[in-house]
Amino acid sequence: MTKLQKKLKILGTITLYNWSVVRHIVENMDSIEVIESKWAEKFKRDHLDMYPLDLHKIRTWSTFEGCSTLIFKNLNSRFIECDAIIWNGDNLNGHRQNVRFTATLKIPIKFLSKIKQNIESKFEYHCENKYDKHLEDKKRRWIRSYEKKILE
Q1: How many CB atoms lie within 10 A of CB 126?
Q2: pLDDT of residue 65
Q3: Count of domains observed in the chain
Q4: Could you read off the pLDDT of 71-122 as tens digits, one per residue?
Q5: What's CA 49's distance to the chain center, in Å?
Q6: Burial classification of residue 28, based on how many CB atoms lie within 10 Å of its CB (0-12 exposed, 13-18 middle, 19 or more buried)
Q7: Residue 78 falls within a domain, yes or no?
Q8: 152 located within any domain
Q9: Would you state the pLDDT for residue 127?
Q10: pLDDT tens, 62-81?
Q11: If DSSP codes are grouped into helix, strand and coil, which group holds residue 9?
Q12: Which label site among 7, 63, 72, 117 has the fewest CB atoms less than 10 Å from its CB?
């Protein structure tokens, strides 16, 4: 297990909203297994012959920036899992309206290199939070000890 995989395992999940990550997924769909995918609209689900959910096409994923949610987590030493939620939006800043489709993907571990910076940033934030908690705990212990010492 690489350090990057270990960091993702410690974090549990990492959620991204970047269109660039969606593009990387579509570009690599030939090596990605679709575990589950479905349209949110019942009419489209019931008429897949007219509305196929083809995740290999960028047009299927196309939406405004901020209208995609990608939740990554470790699956095993060879794959990561991505729960993708694509929303319809109404302008450049997204303004999510309703879910268009959802998909669960099994992605080869090499994809981690595409989101390395995101994992590194979240892991650093995680470590800073742990350090802050450590300092708060240390401060509380010192205060209790000091109070005990001066009040005896």
Answers
A1: 14
A2: 82
A3: 1
A4: 999 988 899 999 999 998 876 666 788 999 999 999 999 999 999 999 999 9
A5: 31
A6: middle
A7: yes
A8: no
A9: 97
A10: 988 889 999 999 988 899 99
A11: helix
A12: 117
